[in-house]
Amino acid sequence: VCDTLHKPARYRVHMFYTHAGCTLVALNPFRPVPDLYSLDVMKEYHHCPQPQESKPHIFIVAEEAYRNVQGQVEPVDQSLVVSGESGAGKTWTSRCLMKYYATVASSSSLETSQNTVERIERRVLDSNPIMEAFGNACTLRNNNSSRFGKYIQLQLDRCQLLVGASVQTYLLEKTRVANQPTNERNFHIFYQMMKGATDEQRLEWMMSPGQTFQWLPNADKTVEEDCFSDTLEAMDHLGVDSDRQKQIFTILAGILQLGNVTFSTWTDESQPCNLTEDVCLSFAVDFLLRAAELLCVPADDLQTSLRVRTLRAGKHQVLKPCSQTECSVRRDCLAKVIYAELFEWLVMFINNSICADQSTWSNFIGVLDVYGFECFQMNNLEQLCINYANEKLQQHFVAHYLKAQQEEYVSEGLEWSFVRYQDNQSCLDLMEGSPTSVFSLLNEVCRLNRASDAKTFRVRLEKELSENANISWNKFSTEPHFTVSHYAGRVEYQIHGMVEKNKDPVPPELISLLQSSKNPLIQHIFAEKDDGKQTSKGLSKVTVVSKFKNSLENLMKILHSTTPHYTRCIKPNQDCQPLTFRKDETFSRCWYDSLCLCLMNMWT
Ligand SMILES: Nc1ncnc2c1ncn2[C@@H]1O[C@H](COP(=O)(O)OP(=O)(O)OP(=O)(O)O)[C@@H](O)[C@H]1O
């Protein structure tokens, strides 16, 4: 039990874990704890005859899953689901689990295969710094916040040795490339480049001394993750050769220069907007020229594709100058599409580098690290998708929990009676059910593609779904919105911009521009982009929610086919203070976290 609210007894005795039914609760100490994850500790849990009876630890979960594979207990494949709010410690925990398997499932003692195996373990672990550099960012809630979800499958051979891995990522927050929330930063990789570049690289990336970038706010804030050399080293290990690295970094440098390109207001609607005559015109033009050179595209074409839209009327083409806002949207869109595709390419490269041949592995242990439930002042499509994912996982957890309880009752000869639990099926029906749901209506409005999208969506929602108890509208709100009662709380979603985000259109002129790039990586990435995924208007045929729902359904299928293990990470205070527990900040946030904390206090 806590001796004071701020320094619970468990901190003093280094008890950061507790079992709570079928869940392991992990309290974030916000400070590296000596010897908590050392090699000796790993070995201790690995060789322990009854790990369940040892001091609660993440390695118990890891070992239990490993022994299930060894014992070929059905379902033999395992999933370790790590959940919790932003900053609670999911990524840290996932890394610990990966290190554990890279150690205990290593065959480095077998002389014959030492080299290959050492390489694969190293490569699997090296995928982390790369994905974190490109997919994590410093936010108000966490200096190293993952802006994507990931499921990594560690592949084990017949002797349960780690022979490879594969990664699946979900919904990268690509808007961050061009729009960073107040007091937050862009993805780490940009700051790593800025801070870690040699003079030669700065020259190559056309960064003038002291140049600042619109898309790099809070560059003076330094975080632990700003280490460029770690990313480069990991890239080397994974086999990203120096030419490819050069191509990657010039693309990123091009994105940064692009962010400094701004447009002036329209004076004559028949003419394209000028680039801003801010300090001096040559400066603004300079950014565009630099961006064009770094992205290896003709500067004139870049300028035109940002400022002029090509409308097709039958066989004819009409050129229409864009407004100032439209130009900025196109600029941002260009940056986002490049970054998102680059990220996807990196993940594919990592997979090619670490994935074992299908014939060499027989089982896997999957580690799922997904964004926790989100509720901000302003919530939009990103939060809708994230919270939908959490609803799905919650449903999976509840089903598993009830099944485990039932089995326990039956094995003890007790009568199993119906237990009331937080049923989130109706919320899932609201979001994805058929024939009508929030997602289906959102897609329907996207297909109509009218100017008054937001209004239409709002009207359709109210007409079709107002009977559903999980959706409501705040009568006093002036913004078009809808409120969903999720299992973890009520969230008000802004409708403004949601339909457009779901369409995620990329003007075809931008794709053609990128296809003309002389940068071999851009060429490679965009070569197949006219493969029918886009309509003639540049609209993606597959909407964001459809794609996300699909990938989540695949994930759920995998989870259902495995033996799950749950770890709930708890953030003990909101400003990431080491060894500090603030009950008021933690208890009110989520009923599930509160429950876990109650259990922790009862059981210490
Ligand atoms: N077991 C631990 N020991 C020491 N420090 C930890 C531990 N777990 C987490 N931390 C600290 O907390 C920070 C936040 O953890 P982490 O990035 O894993 O959170 P997260 O749940 O993945 O957040 P997000 O959802 O924003 O990605 C880490 O950068 C690290 O400093």
Automatic annotation (TrEMBL):
<dbReference type="InterPro" id="IPR036961">
    <property type="entry name" value="Kinesin_motor_dom_sf"/>
</dbReference>
<dbReference type="GO" id="GO:0051015">
    <property type="term" value="F:actin filament binding"/>
</dbReference>
<dbReference type="GO" id="GO:0007015">
    <property type="term" value="P:actin filament organization"/>
</dbReference>
<dbReference type="GO" id="GO:0016459">
    <property type="term" value="C:myosin complex"/>
</dbReference>
<feature type="domain" description="Myosin motor">
    <location>
        <begin position="1"/>
        <end position="604"/>
    </location>
</feature>
<dbReference type="InterPro" id="IPR001609">
    <property type="entry name" value="Myosin_head_motor_dom-like"/>
</dbReference>
<comment type="similarity">
    <text>Belongs to the TRAFAC class myosin-kinesin ATPase superfamily. Myosin family.</text>
</comment>
<dbReference type="InterPro" id="IPR027417">
    <property type="entry name" value="P-loop_NTPase"/>
</dbReference>
<dbReference type="GO" id="GO:0016020">
    <property type="term" value="C:membrane"/>
</dbReference>
<keyword id="KW-0009">Actin-binding</keyword>
<feature type="binding site">
    <location>
        <begin position="84"/>
        <end position="91"/>
    </location>
    <ligand>
        <name>ATP</name>
    </ligand>
</feature>
<dbReference type="Pfam" id="PF00063">
    <property type="entry name" value="Myosin_head"/>
</dbReference>
<dbReference type="GO" id="GO:0000146">
    <property type="term" value="F:microfilament motor activity"/>
</dbReference>
<keyword id="KW-0505">Motor protein</keyword>
<protein>
    <submittedName>
        <fullName>Myosin XIX</fullName>
    </submittedName>
</protein>
<keyword id="KW-0518">Myosin</keyword>
<dbReference type="GO" id="GO:0005524">
    <property type="term" value="F:ATP binding"/>
</dbReference>
<keyword id="KW-0547">Nucleotide-binding</keyword>
<keyword id="KW-0067">ATP-binding</keyword>
<dbReference type="GO" id="GO:0005737">
    <property type="term" value="C:cytoplasm"/>
</dbReference>
